[in-house]
């Protein structure tokens, strides 16, 4: 396929996902798997799980980094950037526009938001079933799934997930170091190690240099860029974890009011795409649409540099037999983590009444058995949620 046609394909698919991927990072991984693994077959389930496992280690928005990684496998660094733009831009535009209207509408109590939460239940359940069949086919890996589920559910701390993945990798190395993978995954990374080294160096240089520059120059845009970059660099656990950091950075200083911040938080959960785009709302509230774009670039730049920097080395490491054995355990742990997140917060926040469960069952049937495209599931879920609210 022509390179520019490939870039256009990435842009179209990632934009479609950016317009329809409701439900948070775990749901995003379900949408990605359905589109890129099941429908397009751009990579195998094992390769996809390896990529998810890597992004779980890195700070920043894991689902966005997975999307960037998939774009890289198709069309190099530019493909990764195009994938990022397509997935992120719809919610950025929506949130910048919402700055001017968010306080005039009671979006947080709208029925369609509840419907989108229920949609996430169906999407994540589908992803869990598919990934568990491929990544935990035997009793040993099923046991790792159970262990990961129990620990992450009962010990819900920020470092628990990373610790579980590390421990599962060690267990996998012990249990499967004599085993051979029954499938050779072909996930070519068209990035050089030199390029990766430059990106990692730039990541740390900005992390250290921006605070120094901010103290030497009182310009608002430098201070904003520094605050958003640090938030994107130091947060593990996804978009919800970054919100307290952003609140401490901007509300006490008076750059954004507590009321506007909370309204933006509600709106951010109502639009598709990564929750990190909440930065666009804050930036636009402070400095208009240019501030929104600046905040978006600053908070996502660490994630981009990290995935660009680590993928070239990850591609080589995952071909090592010892690493492959460890990945048996890591991939099983990812399934357990998904199940844990499926229960809390997805299930607990969405399935409240029998009619909620009925809608989730209908959406699951539409997705799994009727094979309807994900966007129709999103529309049906939103309409269903609104109908439930009106009963």
UniProtKB/TrEMBL annotation:
Keywords carried by this UniProt record: Cell membrane, Membrane, Transmembrane, Transmembrane helix
Gene name of this polypeptide: chrA
Protein name as annotated: Chromate efflux transporter
Main localisation: membrane
NCBIfam families: 2A51
Organism of provenance: Alkalicoccobacillus plakortidis
Top-level lineage group: Bacteria
PANTHER family in the cross-refs: CHROMATE ION TRANSPORTER (EUROFUNG)
Membrane topology: Multi-pass membrane protein
Transmembrane segments: 78-100, 112-132, 144-175, 195-216, 286-313, 325-343
Family matches, as InterPro entries: Chr_Tranpt_l_chain, Chromate_transpt
Subcellular location: Cell membrane
Family per record: Belongs to the chromate ion transporter (CHR) (TC 2.A.51) family.
